[in-house]
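Many groups now describe folds with learned vocabularies. In that spirit, our science desk offers one protein's residues alongside their backbone shape tokens.
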Amino acid sequence: MADQYQYNANEEKIVKDSHTKEIDLINRDPKQINEDVVKVEFEDVIAEPDGTHSMDGVWKLSYTTFTVSKYWCYRILSAIFGIPVALLWGFLFACISFCHIWAVVPCIKSCLIESQCVSRIYSLCIQTFCDPFFEALGKIFSSVRVALRKEA
């Protein structure tokens, strides 16, 4: 649930709110969900093949420009839009959770209950009409013998 309960030596209940838990400021992707997606370095984007090289100073300055601009652009964008976007994602996932809990699961349960009723009626019809028919066919053809001869 939302709260976790812990007990100390005196058996007093200590409530720890999960909304204010400590977050890791060093490892910010502990489940590595963005490991392959947004980990882009200069060498992943810009490369000069053999025989087509720019001047060494241009190459070094391009590397520095790319790295620093990517770093500061990300920091500025996350400072401006990070909290509003986090608010939107929180709202979206809250809506998804609400719909799933209050609409999807009850609808699936309702369909399962209805399909069980239809399944019982279908099973009864099969047992009543088809089973005797196929049993009779089985008895009719049970005396048929097939012999396979190989002619040379």
